[in-house]
């Protein structure tokens, strides 16, 4: 078990202490706006705790605290994006899907979010949805090697080998040094020209992780 960093322990204590102060009844005179400042500080502390969990890294806990921090409107967007990213890095695909999907509803033209969501759909075995989003991403920007490779892998997984072969030629032309070309070509060639003994070619086992939006 990893030891909690002294700074993280301090933040956790500070957050608990601040929450207690905000929750406990008091008879002293309250300065106008003071309660709001105290509450806002709690959300900032939640955000700082999440940042520390990300450094450990404990992405599941980081995501939970980012969501707590999202209660503050001023930092909600950043916290919400980082919560989605953290859930994805924690391989909690369902939670990541929920948050990225919600983000995309409000930011429909965000290509980075589309790519992140396409990747997560694929990792969650929802390949048709992944295919659609990767195709949208390629239509907007056809010059990102990672997106082209992942789209081709999804096509192979869906057994759309002719389309995959076409995409592979694009990758060869634009990114001849891409390391997954060989394994993709082996799998596609084996599928389009099956040997008599029906032995299978090798399929790439991992998608290239996108720069998950935060």
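Q: What amino acid sequence fits the structure above?
A:
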């Amino acid at each position: 078990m990893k030891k909690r960093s002294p700074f993280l322990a301090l933040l956790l204590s500070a957050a608990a202490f601040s929450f207690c102060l905000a929750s406990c009844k008091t008879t002293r005179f309250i300065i106008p706006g003071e309660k709001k400042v105290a509450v806002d500080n709690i959300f900032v502390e939640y955000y700082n705790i999440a940042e520390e969990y990300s450094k450990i890294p404990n992405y599941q806990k980081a995501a939970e605290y980012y969501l707590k921090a999202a209660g503050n409107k001023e930092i909600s967007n950043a916290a919400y994006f980082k919560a989605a990213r953290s859930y994805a890095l924690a391989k909690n695909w369902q939670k990541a899907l929920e948050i990225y999907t919600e983000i995309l509803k409000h930011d429909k033209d965000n290509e980075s979010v589309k790519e992140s969501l396409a990747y997560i759909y694929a990792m969650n075995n929802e390949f048709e949805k992944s295919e659609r989003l990767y195709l949208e991403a390629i239509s907007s920007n056809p010059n990102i090697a990672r997106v082209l490779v992942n789209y081709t892998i999804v096509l192979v997984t869906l057994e759309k080998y002719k389309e995959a072969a076409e995409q592979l030629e694009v990758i060869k032309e634009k990114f001849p040094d891409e390391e997954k070309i060989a394994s993709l070509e082996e799998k596609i060639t084996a599928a389009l020209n099956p040997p008599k003994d029906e032995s299978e070619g090798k399929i790439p086992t991992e998608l290239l992780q996108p720069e998950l939006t935060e």
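Q: And what stands out in the fold?
A: The chain has a mean pLDDT of 80.
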